[in-house]
Structures are given as structure tokens and as C-alpha cells.
């Protein structure tokens, strides 16, 4: 039994380190590097976080670690490499959604891409209870849903052991339906609710593989009660 356990741990370790292994950008045709950028403002802590992930050929390709002098930054500040996640990240206080990523490849070609200034969104003030007795129609504070956007509501924390996510994608919507089927998986008691608006745009400057920028505005995190 002990031998089997040891063998199992060894196999898992090999798989773990294999999964974490990244390709170095100097070994790749620079036109094969796909760029995936994210910028997110969270009103709950008044922080903007940014990340950049580089992959081979496409959005699901093997992750790449940039080789000096290749580098990436946001609004003039370098992003830091995190080996376990295979990404470059940064953070700053305040709403910095409308900024620019600058990426230099190993040949010192530069690509500058501006993120989208996503409209603010929030749950309405005075919301304190959500009933599980039927579909709950939740209006949001902010502009209607626009092309390329998704609105998401996440309910978690408090008395809840897990979380539930609800999405709206219909252009022109000003509310999101929290359907009864998913609400029923929540338990009566306390919870936190947060709403976010995400917009995905293409790159303005890129190599042949292209990429995308995901821009997200997260509203306040509000304490509510879930009633039966």
C-alpha cells in the first residue's frame, strides 16, 4: 500500500511540474506568440489588477515566459512574472481601466494596445433580500448592456458553502434574471452579492497570431439575506 502511495505521489509530481513547464519566447517564431491581456477594476477594494499571458499560436496554446529583452507593461509600469500561474501581473489603486499594455518581443518590435473604458455597474442601493420563491429580476445601476459585453452576478459567502453565478448577454438589457432553479441551490441565510460588467476587444497592434483584451468593472460587494 505504501509503495502504491509513493508511486502515486511521484506520478502526480511529474504531472504537476510538466503542467507548470513554460516555453521560453526566444525559442519561438515571434509571430506565433498570442497575447491575452486582462484589466479589472474592483470597486470593493478600489484596486485595478492587470495580467498578461502569452501562448503559442492561439488562446489555448502552451504558455510562454518572455526572454529578455522581451517584456510587457501597463501604463508604463512593468508587470511581474509569476511562474506558477504562467502570467505577468500588476496592481494599482483606483480605477485604471482605461490604460495601455505595451509588449516588446525579443526582436524589440513593440505593440501598444489600449484597454476599453468599461462603463460602471452596481447593484441598486437598498437591496438587502433575495427570495428563492421564483425568478428574481435584478436591475442594475449603470448603462444598458452593449455589444461585446457580458454582465455577471455572483452570490457567495455568508451562510453559503459555495457560489452561484448568473449571466446576462442580451444587448440593451438593464436587468439580470436570477433564475429560481439556481437560486434554490443557495441556502436561506446571509450571502454576499457582486455584479460585474466585462467587455472583450481585439488588439489594435499585434503580430500574426493576434490576441484579445478582457476588461472588467466590478461593483460593490453587498451583504444580503437569502429568504425561502
The radius of gyration is 21 Å
Helix content: 10-25%
The chain-level structural class is mainly beta
**Element string (H = helix, E = strand):** HEEEEEEEEEEEEEEEHEEE
Question: What is the 3D shape?
Answer: elongated
Biggest sheet features: 12 strands, mixed
| Count of DSSP H/I helices | 2
Q: How far apart, in Å, are the first and last alpha carbons?
A: 48 Å
Q: Which spans of ≥5 residues are poorly predicted at pLDDT below 50?
A: 9-19
| DSSP strand count | 18
- Determine the mean pLDDT: 91
Strand content: over 45%
Key terms for this structure?
228 residues, mainly beta, 12-stranded mixed beta sheet, 4-stranded antiparallel beta sheet, 45% strand, elongated
Write the layout of secondary structure elements.
Layout: H1 2-20, E1 23-24, E2 33-42, E3 47-56, E4 63-65, E5 71-74, E6 77-78, E7 80-82, E8 87-93, E9 100-104, E10 110-114, E11 129-131, E12 136-139, E13 149-156, E14 164-168, E15 175-178, H2 180-183, E16 189-202, E17 211-218, E18 222-227
Parallel strand pairs: 1-4, 2-17, 11-18
Antiparallel strand pairs: 2-3, 3-4, 3-8, 5-6, 5-9, 7-8, 9-10, 12-15, 13-14, 13-16, 16-17, 16-18
Tell me about this structure.
By secondary structure, the chain is mainly β. It is 10% helix and 45% strand. The strands form three sheets. Strands 1, 2, 3, 4, 7, 8, 11, 13, 14, 16, 17 and 18 form a twelve-stranded mixed beta sheet that branches. Strands 6-5-9-10 form a four-stranded antiparallel beta sheet, with no helix packed on it. The chain has a two-stranded antiparallel ribbon with strand order 12-15. It starts with a helix and ends with a strand.
